[in-house]
Amino acid sequence: MFDYDFPLNINDLLYRARDLFSKREVVTRYPEGVHRYTYGDFYGRVCQLAHALDQLGLKKGEKVGSFAWNTFRHLELYFALPCTERILHTVNIRIPQEHFVHTINKAEDRFLFVDEDLVPIIERVQDRLETVEGYIVMSPSGRLPQTSLRSVYDYEELLAGQDEDYPFPEFIDEKTTALMCFTSATTGLPKGVEYTHRGVVLHTLAISLPDAANMSEKMTLLLVVPMFHVLSWGCPFACTMVGAKQVFPGPQPTPGDLARLIQDERVTHTAGVPTVWLALLDEIKLGKYDFSSLQEVLVGGSAPPRSLMEAYEEHGIPMVHAYGMTEAYPVVLVSRLKSYLEDLSREEQYYYRMKQGLLMPLLRGKVVGESGREVAHDGKELGELWLRGPWIARGYYREEEKTRETFGDGWYHTGDVVSIDQEGYIQIADRTKDLIKSGGEWISSVELENAIMAHPAVREAVVIAASHPKWNERPLACAVLKEGEDPRGKKKEIKEMLSQKFPSWWLPDDVVFVEEIPKTSVGKFDKKELRKKFGDYYMGK
Ligand code: ADP
After folding, report:
1. Does the CB atom of residue 335 touch ligand 1 within 6 A?
2. For 158-203, what is each residue's pLDDT tens digit?
3. What average pLDDT score do residues 435-462 get?
């Protein structure tokens, strides 16, 4: 067989749901209504899909793209492809057209599974997709829409009449690629990362642990993090393995849709980026929906402001902070308090809870300072976080130079500048490219942003590095005020508030009020856009 005892295969996560949790539900919101079925039904359809893939002539190791929202059909693709030794490439539907066309061509996807409402986007680019031979439309009605796509199939028709069982391979070499995802490229084109069966299984086990996402059959998880971006943080695999009820928000979900799903499906846990929770907070405050089932919210992808964590806590919903990236399947750090830290004062607890957290089991990390040596574990000294481990990628797909730059010495250089304290809690000060270097000293934009967002009139804020004739760079704050707030006097108040907490040279020289902070494809603040607009703000001053 293989030169090791027993391979780690995604198939075994699937079989567990079939054998033990066939009655647990998978629910999807569509604008037309809610779809629900059980893991028992799910297994039958994964088998049908596997037969359909055979009929399409898809060979082992070949790739298929998905261009889709979080739905049960996407979940079927998550399993049917890897479990039959093919590869699912989840295409990010929110990145610029140039970028996603590049990712589909680079991955050499042979087929593309497309949600019905996204068909017009693909119609516009089909002539530029070099390797795609056919399109499979996933429509909630189960009927093929009018489309100019060539070689088009209807998902439901492909499945209809297929056998609900399938002769999956007994073992798959665990080093086989199962899925693939591209980074959402803040500079240049997205880079591809391959995920192996082994990496996915170990990541699934690790995130399920109590001090990570604490996964259990008793849980109902609303998967807000997109399935088209870093495997929805691994939640689809973990839920299936433990038999948790999964709730998918479907196409174009609004905060109101999420609120209704939490109420109607009695959601106990959910996971997403801070901007989503900021928007949902308005719904919680309105008091229109019942959030009493919600036990915990996992927040990550960018640093949540403390004011956000506190606001949720006031409503009895604890937030747990996590950190990761495309190159790491994605979870690397989770911030839960160690038992003996629970005795600390609320203020001291927040000191830890605001940090990105402790390394997951099986991962190795080190924080390397400018001198090339590891920094002191004092929570102060800054260095770059380097990682290696069973679910840390070892390179970018067919990108030799970029692989050498980022993974050359066997460690993945994250590009995140962090500190590590005596307890081992790691805190991100910035991404290397977002750090502000004023007169030769580093200023952390993340800390300033957090403090500004604690002002009661501020809805969102970022701090960027703006060029400065004397200091090289100085921090500039860009803030969005809450509706109805009068900007007069607010600059002064914000600056005064910051001066209580930070040394004077850290303070932004100015605060500009903007209508909106641009967001990236996955809902993170897009500093790049603001740097373009305000990068020279201080030059004439
Ligand atoms: P991309 O690099 O494609 O934007 P990722 O989702 O892979 O997308 O982003 C990973 C980066 O996001 C990390 O390197 C880090 O800079 C940032 N990040 C992730 N989680 C957090 C967090 N909890 N706090 C601060 N930054 C975070």
Report:
1. no
2. 999 999 999 999 999 999 999 999 997 666 789 999 999 999 999 9
3. 87
Question: What does the alpha-carbon distance between residue 136 and residue 311 come to, in Å, rounded to a whole number?
Answer: 43
Residue whose CA is at the smallest distance from ligand 1 atom 9 = 325
Copy the structure tokens of residue 498: 């910051």
Domain assignment present for residue 476? The answer is: yes
Angle between helices 11-20 and 39-55 (to 10 degrees): 140
Please name the residues in contact with 37: beta carbons below 8 A apart, sequence gap of 6 or more: 25, 26, 45, 72
Q: Which of 187, 233, 302 to mutate to test the pocket of ligand 1 (most atoms within 8 A of CB)?
A: 302
**Ligand 1 pocket check for 162: Cβ under 6 Å:** no
Domain of residue 263 covers 11-418
Active site positions, annotated? 183, 327, 437, 442
Phi, psi of 82 (to 5 degrees): -60, -40
Tally of CB atoms within 10 A around 153:
18
Cα(470) to ligand 1 centroid in Å equals: 31
- Interval 352-373: pLDDT, tens: 999 999 999 999 999 999 889 9
**How many angstroms does the Cα of residue 15 sit away from the middle of ligand 1?**
32
Cα 273 to ligand 1 centroid, rounded to whole Å: 10
**CA gap 319, 309 in Å, rounded:** 6
pLDDT of residue 5: 82
Taking the C-alpha atoms of residue 180 and residue 396, their distance in angstroms, rounded to an integer, is 11
| CATH number, domain with residue 502 | 3.30.300.30
Is residue 426 assigned to a domain?
no
508, 474 in Cβ contact below 8 A?
yes
**pTM > 0.85: yes or no:** yes
